[in-house]
Amino acid sequence: MIAYIIRRILYAIPILIGVNLLTFVLFFLVNSPNDMARFHLGMKRVTPQAIAEWKAEHGYDAPLLYNSAASGVKKLTQTIFFQHSVKLFVFDFGGSDDGRDIGYDIRQRMWPSLAIQLPTFVVGLAVYISVALMMVFFRGTYLDTGGVVLAVVLMSISMLFYVIGGQYLFSKVLRLVPISGYDSGLSAIKFVILPIAIGVISGVGSSVRLYRTFFLEESGKDYVRTARAKGLSEIRVLFRHVLKNAMIPILTGVVVVIPSLFIGSLILESFFGIPGLGSYTIDAIRSQDFGIVHAMVFLGSVLYIVGLILTDISYTLVDPRVRLG
After folding, report:
1. Which residues contact 166 (CB under 8 A, 6 or more apart)?
2. What is the CATH number for 161?
3. Containing domain of residue 68, as a range?
4. Which of 64, 143, 212, 317 could disulfide-link to 132, CB 3.0 to 4.6 Å?
C-alpha cells in the first residue's frame, strides 16, 4: 500500500504541471500582462512607463513561456510561467497582485468554507443514503414511486431557487436567520445554518436517485438472494450486505466533493456573503488577479488527487477483494 501511495504521488506531479500550464495559457489568452497592468492601475490614460513599472514590480516583465533572449536552461526558467509555478509545489503561494499574502488569505478563509461545506457533506451523505435505503426497502410501493418522482422534480430545480426562496422565507418573512454575513465562533451558526440546509436540500434529488440505483443493483445479485433465502430480515440484508457492497460506487462519487470542502461553494458564499475561498476565487477572477486564480486552481488539483488516493485506500476497508489483492 505504501509503494502504491508513493507511485500515485509521483504520477500526480506531471498532472499538476499540466494543470498549471493549462491554467496559465487560458488566463493569459484572455488577459495579457499589459491588460492586467491597466486594470490594476485604474487609470484611463496609463503611460507605457507606468505599465512597465507595474509589470516589473509584480513579476510580469519576463516572457510568458519561453525566453529566447536567454541561454541554456534560462530559456525556460526566466519566464512568468516558471517563476509563478515552481513555488506552488512547495505550497508557497506568494502574493496577490494587490500585495496580499495568498497563503494567509487561504488559511483564514478556509474555515468559513469548511463551516458550510463539511456539515453539508456529512449531513447530506447521511440523509441521501438513508432516504435511498428507505425507498429500496419499500420498492415497488407508492412510497418508492412518489420518492422517485419527487427526486426528479427536486433535481430539476436550480440551486438559485432554493437560495432566493430560503432567504426570502426564513430571513425576510420569518426573520429566523440573517440574510447574509458571517461571524466567528459559535455566533457563526446563525449565519451558516441556512446555507447548510440549502446545500443539503439542493442535492437530495440527484443523490437519492443515484444511490437508489446503486442499492437496487446490489439487491438483485445472487449473494443478496442467498441471504434472503437463509431467513435474514430485509433490514439486515440492506444494512449488512447491500449497503456495504454499494459503498464502492458511492465512495467513487464522494471523492469529487472533497476539494469543494476546502475550496467552498461559489454560489452559496456569494449569495450569503460568506468570506470563504469560493467568494475569494470569484473576486480574484473579477479583478484579473493571476496569483490567486493560479493558487486556487493548484490547490483544487492537489485536493482532488488526495481525494482519489484516499478513495482507493477506503476501498480496502469496504471490499476484502481489494485488500487481499
Report:
1. 194, 197, 198
2. 1.10.3720.10
3. 2-90
4. 212
